[in-house]
Amino acid sequence: MLIDTLTPGTAPTKTTTVIPSSEGIEIGPRRRVRSVRLDDRFDLIGAGVAGIAVGTLLFGWFTPLSGGVGWTIVSFLSFITFYAVLVGMKADRQEIKDRVVSVLLASAGVILFGALVFVVAYTLVRGQDALPHLNFFIENMELAGPLDPLSAGGILHAVLGTLIQISIALAITIPLGILTALFLNEIGGRFAKFVRTIADAMTALPSIVAGLFVYSAIIVLITHQRSGFAAAMAITVMMLPIVIRASDIVLRLVAGNLREAAYALGATRWRTVWHVVLPTARPGLATAVILGTARGIGETSPVLLTSGVTAVTNLNPFSGPMISLPLQVFDFVKSPEPNMIARGFGTAAVLILLVLALFAVARLIGGRGPGELSHGQQRRVLEASARDVRRITIAADRRQPVAAVPEPDPAPGLPSTPERPAPSKEESSS
Amino acid sequence: MTTTNPTGPLGQPATSVGWTPDFDDAPRRSLLPRPSLSDSVFKSVAVTAGATTVGIMLAVGLFLSFRASSALQVSGFSFLVEQQWSPETQVFGIASILFGTITIALIAMCVAVPLALGTALLISEIAQGQLRKTLITLVDLMAAVPSVVFGLWGVFFLQANVIPVASWISTYFGWIPFFQVTDASGQVLTEASAFTSSAFIAGIVVGLMVVPTQTSVMREAFSQAPNGEREAAFALGSTRWGMIRSVVLPFGRGGIIGGTMLGLGRALGETIAVYMIISPIFTINWQVLKTGSNSVSALIALRYGESSEFGLSALMAAGLVLFLITLMVNFTASSIVARSRSGADSEA
C-alpha cells in the first residue's frame, strides 16, 4: 500500500514488498546485556553490612564515640574500605578504582538528594502541628499572641501579602523581561550586547543589597514608610535578571529557519515575532517566568528591609508594612515559644508547597523544547491542516468548471489545483 | 545579461561597478526595506525595554556607589582593615565581616564542590533514561527551595546534630589552627555551647544551598564531552572511571571551575540562612568551629533599622564591596564557562 501511494503513476499490482513472516520462530527470553553479576551484588551487600557492623561496634561498644552523624561517617568509610578489599580479591587495580569511584559518585548523589528530601520533609513534618487548624489559613496574627494555642491566629495576612507583592513584581517583570529578551535576540546590535552584559552582572546582585537599595532609594528618600510596593520593587530587581537570562536562552533556541521562512513569506519583523517566535518559545518562556516567580516568592531579606513585619492584614500595597510568607517564617521562629515555632514551620510548609506547585506547573508547561508539541497540540495542528486541505480542494472544485484550459490530471488520487500552484504545494506538505 | 536586468539581482551598488546603465533617467529603486509602522513601534518598544532594564540596573550600581562614597570618604583606607563596626563613632571597617563572609563561603565550597561534582558525574555518566530525567528535575527543584527553609533546617536540626562532629574534629585535629576551639586565654573549650552558631554550621547549610547551581552547570559541561572520544576511550580498554578521567573531566574543566565560582558568588551573597544561624561578632575569628562569625549580608540585615543617615551610608559601602566581589566572581565564572562551551548556538 505504501508503495502504491508513493508512485501513483505506476501499476500498483506488480511491485509489492514482502515482509518475511515471523511465524513459527521461537522468541527466547530477552537477554540482559547490562546486568550486574551476582558477585558484584554480594560484594556491595557484604561491604554494606560489614561497614554498618564496624560503625555500630565502634560507637556502641568499644569507644566512647557518640552521635548519629559520626556513626554514619565511620560506617560509610569502613563500607568503602571493605568494598575495595572485596572487589580487589578478584580484580586488578583499574577495576577496583572504577568500582570504588562508581560507589562514591552514587553516594554523592544519594547524600545530595537525601539532604534535599530531608530538608523538605523535615519542614513538612514539623509543620504538621499547625497545618490541620483551619484558622491557620483564614485568620491573621492580629489577635493572637505568642502564648496563644495554635487554634488561634493564622497566616492569611502573609499569604495575601505574598500574592500582592509577587503580582506587582510579575506585572513589571513579565513585559519588561520578555521585551528585553526579545530586544537581545530579535534586534541585537552593540547596545544589545551591553544590555546582556549588564543583565548578567545583575544576577550577581546579592538580594540584601537589592533590598538595601530600595530601602534607601525609595523608602528613605521618597515614601518615608515601608510598603508592599517597595518590597515588590526589590523582588522585581531580583527577578528581572533571572527572567531575562532564562528567556534569552529560550528565544535563542528558536530555530533560525522558522524566522527565515517567515521573512521569506514577506512577514514584517513584528509579525514574525508575534506569530512565529513567541508561539514557538511559549512553553520555555512560561517556564522562565515561573522559575523566576519561585525564586521571587522565596526571597526573604529584601522584604525584611523594605516591607517590614506586621500582624494585621494589609491589602494596600502603597502604605504600611505588608508581610510575606518567608518573612513570616523568619519572624515566627525568632520567638522562643514552641507554638510560634510550630507556626513558623507551618508557614514554611505552606511556602514549600506553593513553590512545589509552581514548579510542577512549570514542568507541565515547559517540559518540552521550543517547537515540540504535545499529543493534543499535534492532533489539533493536523486537524487544522486537514481542514485547510478540504477548504482548498472545495475552492478548487468550484473553480474547476470555470477554468478554460482542461489540463490532463496526472494524479487522480491527489486533489490538485492546476490553476493555483501555491495551495497545492501547501497541501502536499501537510 | 546585466543590460536586460537594470536593477540587478542584488541591487547593491557594488554590483553596478562594471556596468553602464542603458537609461539613466529611470529612477533608481531603493532596495532598503521601508520599516512598517508595526515594526518601528516594536523596535522602539523593545529598545525602550532594554534601556529601562539597563537603567534600573545602573541605578542600583550608581546609587550604591554614590551613597557609599560619603562613608568611604570618612573612613578612607581603614574601611578595609578596621574590625569594629560603629559608624556612630566614625570607627568602622569590614575586615572582620569580610573575613567571616569568605570563611563561610569557603566552608560552603568544601561541602558543595565534591557533592556537586559527584552528582553531576552521576547524572551525566552513570544514570540512564528515566532515572537521569528524574535526577535533573530534582536538582532544578532543589534550586527553587527558598533559603529560609534551609535556614530553618540548619537552626532546628543540623545545629544539634553537627555539634558532636565539630567537637570531635576540634579534639583530634585541634593541632590545625583552624580547628582549634579556645577561649580568650587560650584554654581549650569542649562544652557543646562553644560550638553553636559557628561559621562551620552556616557553611554547611549555605553549601547545600549552592550545590544545585553548581551541579547543573557541571552536568551541562560534562554532557558536551564528545561521544566519539568516550567510545574511543572504551575501545582502548579503559574502565568507566578511566574514560571519565581522560575524556569527561578534561572536557568539562571549564564547567567545573565556572560552576564552582557561580556557586561561590551565591554563597557570598546569601543572607537569611546565615543570619538565622550565626551569632554576630566583630572580630576576626580564625576558629571556624567556634561560636560567632559574621557576614556582610547578615550585618546589613542586622543593622539597617537602627542606622542613621551616615550608618546607612556605611552599610551601603559594605554592600557595595560585597557586590563588587560577587560581580568579579560571576564574570570570571561566566567567561570561563563561555570559553569552554562549544556549539552553544543552536541555529538549526
From TrEMBL, chain A:
Residues 407-421 have a biased composition (Pro residues). Residues 159-362 form the ABC transmembrane type-1 domain. GO terms for cellular component: plasma membrane. It comes from the Bacteria. Pfam families: BPD_transp_1 (PF00528). It is a multi-pass membrane protein. GO terms for biological process: phosphate ion transmembrane transport. Keywords: Cell membrane, Membrane, Phosphate transport, Transmembrane, Transmembrane helix, Transport. The chain crosses the membrane at residues 42-62, 68-88, 100-125, 155-184, 204-223, 229-251, 344-365. Gene3D superfamilies: MetI-like. Residues 395-430 are annotated as: Disordered. The keyword Transmembrane applies. InterPro entries: MetI-like (IPR000515), MetI-like_sf (IPR035906), Phosphate_PstA (IPR005672), Phosphate_transprt_permease (IPR051408). It is found in: Cell membrane. GO terms for molecular function: phosphate transmembrane transporter activity. Belongs to the binding-protein-dependent transport system permease family. CysTW subfamily. Part of the binding-protein-dependent transport system for phosphate; probably responsible for the translocation of the substrate across the membrane. NCBIfam families: 3a0107s02c. This is Phosphate transport system permease protein PstA.
TrEMBL record, chain B:
Keywords: Cell membrane, Membrane, Phosphate transport, Transmembrane, Transmembrane helix, Transport. Residues 98-333 form the ABC transmembrane type-1 domain. Its main location: membrane. Residues 1-21 are annotated as: Disordered. Residues 1-18 have a biased composition (Polar residues). It holds the Pfam family BPD_transp_1. It is a multi-pass membrane protein. It is found in: Cell membrane. PROSITE patterns: ABC_TM1 (PS50928). The chain crosses the membrane at residues 44-66, 91-123, 135-156, 162-181, 193-212, 272-289, 309-331. Coiled coil: none annotated. Part of the binding-protein-dependent transport system for phosphate; probably responsible for the translocation of the substrate across the membrane. Belongs to the binding-protein-dependent transport system permease family. CysTW subfamily. This is Phosphate transport system permease protein.
